[in-house]
Amino acid sequence: MLRRFALFAALVFGFNYSFAHADELTFADARALLLAGEYDSAISLGEAMGTADGLTLAAESISAKVLLGYVDDRKDEAKRARKLAAKALEMDQTSHEALVQYALAYGFEAQASSQFRAWRKKLPKKTRKAIDEVRQRFPDDPRGDALLGAWHLGIIREAGEEQAQDMFEANEVDGIQYYELALIKRPDDIIILSNYTASLLSLDASRHEKKAAALLQRIYEAPTANAVEIDVKTRMEQFRPHLENPEKLTELAETLLDGEQN
C-alpha cells in the first residue's frame, strides 16, 4: 500500500517525493514513470537508486527526452546519458540494456555535436564501436541493427556520400540493409520505423517517396506501448498531408532527427 502511494506521489509531485522516498520505490516503479512519460521523475529515481539498472533507466529516460526534443542542450544531455550508461556498465559488465543505452547515447552525442567536435573526439568511430559490441553480444536485439542503420545514414546526412564513404565506410546501401534487418526482427517498432523513415526522407525525399509512404502507413497502423511511442507516432502523423511535397517531407524529417519541436 505504501509503495503504491509512493508511486502515486512521484507521478503527481515529481522528483521531490521520489528522491526522498527512493527506498519505497522499485525499479518497476521507475520504469512505470518512464513509460508514462514522467521522464524527469524517472531520471531522478533511477539516479537515486544507484544501481546498474537504475542508472541505465535514467540514461534511457534522458535519451527519450533528447529524442523528443525536451532538452535545451542535446549534446550535453546525450553526454550525460552516455556517462550514466557507462557507470552502469562498470557496475555490471553483462548488462544488455546498459550497453544499448550507451551506444544510443553516443549516437545522439555525435549527432548533436559540431562536425569539428565529432571529428576531434572521434565520436563516429566510438559510436560504431559501441554499436558493433551490441550486435556482437546481443545479435537478436533489433536495436543494434537499427542503430547501425542510423549510423550509416546519419553520417551521410552530415558529411555527404563521398566523404562518408571515404572517411568512415558509411553508405546508403548498408544503412538501408541494417534498418530492414531490424524490421524483420521487430516489424511494428514505431521508433525504428520512424527513424528509418526520417533518415530516408532527410537524404532524398523524392527518391525515397514510395518507400517512405509504405513505412509511414506501417507507423500509422502500429500499436503504441508507451508515452515515447505515442509522442513519436503523433509527430509522424504530420507527414501524412505532405506525401506529395518532398521539400516539406525533408523539413519534417530533419526536425524529427534533430530533436526539435514543430
Structure in words:
By secondary structure, the protein is an all-alpha fold. The protein has a domain at about 185-260. It has helices spanning about 1-15, 15-20, 25-35, 40-50, 50-70, 75-90, 95-110, 115-120, 125-135, 140-160, 160-170, 170-185, 190-205, 210-220, 225-235, 245-255. Helix 10 crosses helix 11 (about 160-170) and helix 10 packs antiparallel against helix 12 (about 170-185). The model is unreliable at about 1-20 (pLDDT under 50).
Poorly predicted runs are 1-22
- H and E string: HHHHHHHHHHHHHHHH
Major sheet characteristics: none
Nearest-integer average pLDDT: 91
* Rg over alpha carbons: 18 Å
How far is the first residue's CA from the last residue's CA?
42 Å
The number of E-state strands comes to 0
Oligomer: single chain
The coarse overall form would be: globular
| Strand composition percent | under 5%
Structural class: mainly alpha
Q: Key terms for this structure?
A:
mainly alpha, 16 helices
Blueprint (SSEs and pairs):
Blueprint: H1 2-13, H2 15-20, H3 27-35, H4 39-49, H5 52-68, H6 74-91, H7 96-112, H8 115-120, H9 123-137, H10 142-159, H11 161-168, H12 172-185, H13 190-204, H14 209-221, H15 227-236, H16 246-257
Helix pairs in contact: 3-4, 3-5, 4-5, 5-6, 5-7, 6-7, 7-9, 7-10, 9-10, 10-11, 10-12, 10-13, 12-13, 13-14, 13-16
